Amino acid sequence: MTTMTRRNLLRLGALAGAGAVTAGCATPGTTSVNAEPTVPAAPAGETITLTYWAWLKDLQKVCDVWNAQNPHIQVQASWIQGGNAGGYQKLYSALAAGGGPDLGQVELRSLPEFMLVNGLVDLRRYGVDDYADRYNEALWQQVSYVDGVYGIPQDSGPMALYYRPDLLDAVGAAPPQTWAQWADVARAVRDTGAHLDCFNYADASWFAAMAQQAGARWLRVEDDSWVIALADETTLEVARFFDAAIDEGLLTTAYGQFSTPWFAAAANNDIAGLISASWGDALLQGVSGASGLWRVAPMPRWETGYASSFLGGSSAAVMANSRHPKEAMEFAVWMTTSPEGINAMIEHCGIGWSPASDYIGSAREGGSEFFGGQPYNTEVFEPAAAPAAQNLEWSWWPITQQSFNILADGFRAKAAGGTLVDAVVAAQGTIVRTFRNKGLTIREETA
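That's the Extracellular solute-binding protein sequence above. Prediction below.
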C-alpha cells in the first residue's frame, strides 16, 4: 500500500514546488500549519474555552459532561448546517478571515479538501499517536493517510442488509449472502409487486460504497502524481450488475432510500429490504407500523472483496486557527473513545457507529424491540466494522464530492437510455480534466 504524505498531497500539481501548489489552492488568509510552531498547552490552572462547530443535535449536552469534569477546559458547541448544505462554506469563510472554531465537524471524505487549503492542524505534532490504538484501524487510516493525522474519527457507517423476514418468507427466501443470491431474492420479491431495494441516481456515494466493498480503489498517490482507476474492471463489474438489476426492475429508481416516497412504500409493504449503514436503524423507525417487522443481516458479498463497506462517517477536526489545538484534540479523543463520551454522543446526538476499537456504546449492546429483540449491533454491525471486513486500501481525494456529482450526472442519463457503465467511464475522464484544471497532476492507471 502506498502511503500518501502531506508533502505528496500538496505537491501533486503541475506548478513548480509544494509552496506554489499550496498557494494556488489555498483559501486567502490561511497559512500552512506545518510552517507554524507548535502551540504550547495552556498553563496549568488557566481556564480556556474551546468552540466546536458541528451539525450534531444537542452536542452541548455532550460538552457539558466534559465541562463538569474539566473546569479549566470548557467547550461550547455551535450548530451549523450539514457539510455541503452550508456548514463547510461557513468553516472555509472563517478560516479565510483568520478565525473560526477550535474544532469543526468534517466528513472523513472531505478531509483532503480542507487539507489543501491548509485548514487543519496536524495532530501528530500534539502526540495524537498515543491514542491511535483506541480507534478502529480502518477509521484511523481514514484520518492519517498523510504524514500527520488531520482529524479524530467521530463516527462511521458500516453497512448491512436490513430486511423484512415476513416478506422474504412469503417467497421462500432467506437473507442473501452473495450479490448473486440477492438478485435471485430480488426477482422473487418483485413477482409480489415489491422491491428489495432502490437505486438513487442522484447520490453516487452508495454506488461508491458498493465498489469499495468489491475491492476497488478509485484514487491513490504514486510518487508525485495522483492515479485514477475509477473505471477499473472491479468497478465496471459492479456497474454491470446494477445496470442489469435496474433494467430487470429488481431495483426501483423512482425514489431514494429514506425519502418521503420511500417511507410511504415501506409502510405499504412495497419495500422488502435495503442495504444501508448502521445509522439507518434510527431512520427505519420512522416507517409507520413497522415495529417488530425488520431484521438485520450481513451485507451480501461480491466474488472478490470484503464483507462490508462504510457509508458516511465524520471526524472532529482541529481547525488551523485554533489557539488551543492540544486541548481541542484531548477533548475530541475523550468524546470519541471514553464510555461516557460515546454514551452521551449516542443519547444526545444520535451518532453513527462508534469509532472506538473496543466500545460500541451501552445502548447498542442489547436487543432492540423495533428489530424483534435482535441484538443486531453486536451480531451484525460490530463484525462489519472490523478492519478485516473493510477495504483498507480505499482513501479519499481532494474533490470527492465534486466527483460524486459528476458520477451522479452520468447516472441520471440511464433514465434516457444510458448505462451506469458508460457513466463510470465518462466520469473518469471528467474527473481527470477537473484535477488538471485545478493544477493537480493526475494520470489514468494503465494495465
